[in-house]
Amino acid sequence: MLGTRQIRQIYNYYFSADKNLARKLKPIIGFVPARLHIFRLAFYHKSMNNSEGHNGNNERLEYLGDAILSTVVAEYLFKKYPQKDEGFLTKMRSKIVKRKTLNLIADRMGLDVVLSEYTQGRMSHSMLGNALEALVGAIYIEFGYNKTKHYVIRNILMKYLDIHALEQADDNYKSMLLEWCQKHGKQVGYRVIAKTKLDKRDRFKVAVIVDGEKVSTAEDFNKKSAEQTASRKAVKIFEINTQKSEVANG
To answer: b or e along 28-52 (b: 16 or more beta carbons within 10 Å of the residue's beta carbon)?
Structure first.
C-alpha cells in the first residue's frame, strides 16, 4: 500500500502543474520531491519577484541551507580526519563551503538547467552556488537533518568534489597577498570604488590598495569575490610565488 509521501511523488511527477519541474529534478537530485513547491522556490531568484504575480525567492532557503551545509561539512571533516587539528579542519571547511566551490559543484550537478527557468536577466555563477544552498535547505525540509546529512555527503560531496585535490589547493589570494605584504613591510587594504546595478543586482568594483597606491581592480556581484579576483591580479603583478595549485576540477 502506498504511503502519503509516495502518493504525493506520483502526483507531482504525472499530474502536478509543476510536473515538468519534477521531471527535470529527478535525474539531477535522484528523487521526486513530495513538497515540490519548496523545491520550486529553491530556484526562484529574486529577479523574479513581482513577475507574473509571483512574490518570494530562494534567499530564506539559501540561509537555511548555508547553515546546514556548514554543519554537515564540519561533521564530515571531523570524522574523515581524526588526526588533524582545528586549524586544518577550519581551512578545509572554508574551501568546501566557499562560493567558488559551491558554484563549481552546482554547475557539475546541472542546476543551471532548472535555475535558468526561474531567473530573469543574465545568470551568474554565484547564483548557481546560492541555488545549491537553497536546494540543501529544501532537502532538509523534505527529509529532516539526518537524511539530509547522508544525502549531502553521498550525493554531493563524494560525488562532485575531489576532497584530496582540495587538500592541496590554495586559491585564497587575499591571504597570499597579505602574507607577502607583511613579509615585505607593506600595508594592504581594499576599497569599493564603484557600485552599480546590473539586472537589478548590485555589482561591486573593488580596488587593492598597497601602501596607498591602487594596484589592481575587479568587479563582481559579490564583494568578497571581487576582492579575491583583484587580489589574484595583484599576486600576478607582484610575481608572488603561489606554490600550491588552485582548486582542482576533479
So the answer is: ebeebbbbbebbbbbbbbbbbeeee
First CA to last CA distance, the chain: 43
Long-range contacts of 55-58 (CB under 8 A, 24+ apart): 58/130, 58/131, 58/134
67-125 per-position pLDDT tens digit: 999 999 999 999 999 999 998 999 899 899 988 899 999 999 999 999 988 887 677 78
CATH architecture entry for 173-237: 2-Layer Sandwich (3.30)
pLDDT score at 202: 86
Q: Say which of 52, 62, 66, 86 is annotated catalytic.
A: 66
Residues 60, 75: Cα–Cα separation, whole Å: 23
Contact between 29 and 119 (Cβ < 8 Å): no
Report, in angstroms and rounded to the nearest whole number, the Rg of the chain calculated over CA atoms: 20
Cα–Cα distances in Å, from 82 out to 170, 178, 182, 188, 219?
22, 30, 33, 36, 40
Residue 133 is a catalytic residue: yes
Quick one: 4-168 is in which CATH superfamily? Ribonuclease III domain (1.10.1520.10)
Rounded distance, CA 22 to CA 39, Å?
A: 9
Catalytic residue among 18, 85, 107, 133: 133
Please indicate whether residue 170 is annotated as part of the active site: no
